[in-house]
């Protein structure tokens, strides 16, 4: 395990914002403010607004280092899937990233690991980077099963062909999302080390370099401590990504 973990060279951190079902046109001013500050940051920024804002947001950040992502895609490129959006459509609208397998979708829409892997493949085919989410529930952690559960999710949710360029992983303990509760740094460290070990064993160098984000109640006040944990290569931020001042405060700590 030590040898595998030592092969990791920390990449530039990725700070991704997940706006969930928030924001209409007026919220684009926040993305504009983020983009205006992005040149001065030493991390990569991705904002994932609702589908309805993607094209406008992509236009706003066109000449800046900020990238735009979506929060889900369908596994098929086209077809009779009322209400769904394909990865090709996202790319066409100007997205470069897509969040896949967020726990809110796994729970609300019963998305299984196999579906997540199929969506990731669709994202790769469309040239998008997939941000694949995994994480245990509180009951699973209390039962001492967090590491096993997350590594099993990771194993079944990543398709063959995942690379450091086309995939980032977001470890989001379900009990930490939107609750103000954050795992102890040692718990994050153990989880990220276990994920790195699994990814390195399966994908070699690519797995060693794949960015591992932490998500769940990240704020400007706790970001520096979280980013100092080994194998934390960034964050997936929900509530604190809605306002430029909050999100930039997190990015400044990266
Ligand atoms: O995708 C983001 C996560 O669900 C974290 O949300 P949060 O930062 O509001 O806890």
Automatic annotation (TrEMBL):
Location in the cell: Cytoplasm
Catalytic activity field: D-glyceraldehyde 3-phosphate = dihydroxyacetone phosphate; L-erythrulose 1-phosphate = D-erythrulose 4-phosphate
Active site positions: 102 (electrophile), 172 (proton acceptor)
Keywords: Cytoplasm, Gluconeogenesis, Glycolysis, Isomerase
Pfam family, one: TIM
Pathway assigned in UniProt: Carbohydrate degradation; glycolysis; D-glyceraldehyde 3-phosphate from glycerone phosphate: step 1/1; Carbohydrate biosynthesis; gluconeogenesis; Carbohydrate metabolism; erythritol degradation
Enzyme Commission number(s) from the entry: 5.3.1.1
Similarity annotation: Belongs to the triosephosphate isomerase family.
Name assigned to this protein: Triosephosphate isomerase
Provenance organism: Xaviernesmea rhizosphaerae
